Amino acid sequence: MARQDYVFTSESVSEGHPDKLCDQISDAVLDALLAEDPAARVACEAFATTGTVVIGGEIGLSDKKKLGEYMGSIAEIARDTIRDIGYEQEKFHWNTCHVHNYLHEQSAHISQGVDRDGAGDQGIMFGYAVDETPELMPAPIQYAHAILRRLAEARKSGAEPTLGPDAKSQLSLRYENGKPVEITSLVLSHQHKDETQTSDDIRAIVEPYIREVLPEGWLTERTEWWVNPTGTFVIGGPDGDAGLTGRKIIVDTYGGAAPHGGGAFSGKDPTKVDRSAAYAARYLAKNVVAAGLAKRCVIQLSYAIGVAKPLSIYADTFGTSEIPEAEIERAVSRAMDLTPRGIREHLALCRPIYRRTAAYGHFGRTPEADGGFSWERTDLAEAIKREL
Questions:
Q1: What are 260's strand-pairing partners?
Q2: Which residues are known catalytic residues?
Q3: Do residues 337 and 346 touch, judged by C-beta distance below 8 A?
């Protein structure tokens, strides 16, 4: 039986974290190309350091003549993303940083398999859901995200003008009888603009927002607070530490509470199963839990490049279901077409919906009217139950 009493920790990073900034640039490029061509192929990577952003990878459009037109807009897309995040520092400013574009046409050897509706690469993808939050997400990562998202709202609204874009949060959460009951420690490192501000000053600013988003009773007199524990944090973002697309895969998913196949999401179009099949696996796991078939569920899918059918489907309910996992595996495979094309069509993934996923987690979000976060719907629950 799984442990019932323990402490588990997850971290999140803000939209201004160097790696997350790169994720957002990569997904902004993806969105721009999908807006032009829903069949666009994109594998876009970004690197950021002091005063510089480097963008590279492979892209493809149905009309190859338009590729050249879009190459000229890449720098503008990057600058707009940096401006929206809020970087106007002396050594990293949206208007003055150098943007180098090394994108080129997609390899024909890769596209030939995808054009036959096969997977864009081999690999394993995991999806996870658990009933400890309304979003069916692990509580430590869900609330670590919520803290930073709320602080970003306060910063961008002008309510907290001394906060900077770069930040990290970390929650250690005590579980009792398998349910989260108390935060044992809270870590927040937040960039600020005034060098005279102390750790106590920053805590005074951020604490009301933190208390606003956390469930009542989780912060106790025993909770250890570590706010800007190193002291001054004025130099932030890519000027303080280089960033790279795809380096926050645990932040993007389940905060370490579930397995990860190793593939990053941002900058990849939905023919890449690293992204689309991970979304499908979350969708299936969430619907298994939403259907009341298990309290906790992980789904693994595996694929081979150029092959449409998934090579394997694996489910584990950690002893929280009375239904054999083999039956759940068969049910989810019948309830949804898990070929790459089937996933893209079922979840309507060939849309410009990805920049918004690149900060504060790809999962545990609210499905949006334009199809954003479609994998967070629970509309497959009844279909799964019917297949059992």
A1: none
A2: 17, 19-20, 45, 58, 168, 233, 241-242, 247-248, 268, 272, 274
A3: yes
Answer for the pair 132, 6: CB distance below 8 angstroms, yes or no: no
Closest CA to 357 of 262, 266, 271: 266
- Mean pLDDT in residue range 177-200: 97
Model confidence band, residue 27 (pLDDT cutoffs 50, 70, 90): very high
Instruction: Give the tens place of pLDDT for each residue, 123-138.
Output: 999 999 999 999 999 9
Distance between CA atoms of 321 and 205, rounded to whole angstroms? 44
| Pairing state between β 52-60 and 98-105 | parallel
Q: How, if at all, do strands 41-49 and 52-60 pair? A: antiparallel
Render pLDDT for 278-322 as a digit per residue (tens, 0 to 9): 999 999 999 999 999 999 999 999 999 889 999 999 999 999 999
Please list the residues that pair with 101 across neighbouring strands. 55
Record the tokens describing residue 40, joined without a space: 């666009």
Q: Find, among 82, 80, 77, the residue nearest to 18 by Cα.
A: 82
Using alpha carbons, select from 309, 314, 312, 334 the residue that is nearest to residue 325: 314
pLDDT score recorded for residue 86: 97
318, 2 contact by CB (below 8 A): yes
